[in-house]
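**User:**
Make up any protein.

**Assistant:**
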Amino acid sequence: MEPMTAARRVAVVAHFDAEGLLTEFTRRLLDELLLHAERIVLVSTRLAYEQATGLDQRITVIVRENVGYDFYSFRTGIFAVEALYSYDELIIANDSVVTIDQGGIGKAFAQMRDVECDVWGMTESLQVSRHLQSYFLVFRKSAFFTHYFDRFWRNVRVLDDKWEIILSYEVGLTQWLLSHGAKIGVAYRPDATAKRVAAARIKRKRLREGVNALIAAPSKQGVLQANPAHYHWDELYRQFGFIKSEVLREDPNGVLDVELASVIPDADARAMIEREVARMRQTRKNIMPIVTGDDSPASDELERYGVGAIDAESLSSRFAIVLHLFHIDLIDAICAYMRNVIVDYDVFVSVKSISDRRMAVRYFQEHKIRASVFIHPNIGRDVGPFISLLNTGLLDRYDAVCKIHSKKSVYHDGGGQWRDDLMKALLGSSFDVLRVLRAFDDHPACGIVGPESAYLSNARFWGGNEERLRVLAAETGIEEKRIRLGFFAGTMFWFRPAALSALRARSIGLSEFDPEAGQRDATLAHVIERLFVLWVEQAGFFAATTRSPNAALRHESYENQGIFVLPS
């Protein structure tokens, strides 16, 4: 057991129980935390008075209104810690695990003691984007004693949609930390055997869902994206002594494929678990459901609706449209342009929330548009979702792809007009579309075709991006002497995926993008916008405009061109 002198710790624990109880399993969690933390702030959204009686004097209890889920409880508890600066580590945890055996938390602390990181979690997930799962996190002083840590928690507000909470706070927290240079670590690292077990469970789930047996086996990436708290539940118990309550209560992914007795040999412990699971199932019937519009648990939604869940077998065309639909209210206007593509094509649509996904799926079904709609964190504006999709390799199969998005300029009244101008240039008529597609067919060296009016090459449009662009250009193999400014403002264009091989090889992660703060310039998204043409040319392809898609554009001809909505 790790000695108390190793680090001064304080813990914040989020609690909810439909009957206001502190169950034996929650008390066991608190007892084990007290072996490693000097104090605990227990924040509950439903706790009966008598349940708090007799608790260890090192536990401070706060009962608050039942809104905002665990992250608002974490926020409440963190700001209630007295002299937080005096501690070395801050633990946040919730009661969503059934703590069966003692010693697991101590094992995790011992395992992570010498790991160089600022924040670590029990498990990490790659669903949607890499993130530490929030049921157990440890922040070292190098992380929690910072302005960016304080700013994150001060910006946490009450949200009612659990999916939005996951995107904004669980996924968002890790991405926020990474964007500020924090190093993250994880206690649980599955070995090859655990990965094989997870792969078998994923395959069985897909077979139950009717997936063809020939394609039901997951890829390596698919295994990595599976929720470890579910698909590795038995290995997590063996190593750390807990099982996620949701697995025992609902088993939404069908992972309870072995007898509990083979994992937990103690009959008394199993009987206690079975009684608690039965109680949870009964009491949860009376809880107001999560506002997600269906009965699917949020963890399952992450797996089902992220970019990694797109079914490659459903893709069958030579051409595609990639649409980032941040502004769902523009769906009808944008689809009016898409109807001008009269050849067969696939559609990829990224949205920011589960509610937007439902609206988009319903719209496309009603209008008989075959679309793969996926949820993506609000990171990197339209470029972030595009990079995530490009990195999957799903676009490699296409001869030409049109990248568009529901652009609205928040700093210029003409933003809507500019969006329409770009759409008209790319998708304005069937004739215009066929002309561009014919250029890709007739000219294998044609790599990108953008709106004639959007190409900018004057040095005044570097903005604050040149230094960062040169770094990324070097990382992707572009020689210094070849770097010049030349780009399609607005990041809407037709392109040949093979022409962006350098971008895909770089495999830019979401953690590299700047946190969204309404910036007009100098973010990674702005840098990438200015690199597309350079990547195309580096790969041996040429850039053209919709005015003359069959021939390489003359860069110097656009020296005097400007865009009325861009600062210069």
In short: Residues 58 and 74 are 18 Å apart (CA to CA). Confidence is low (pLDDT under 50) at residues 286-299, 410-414. The chain has two domains: 4-186, 306-558.
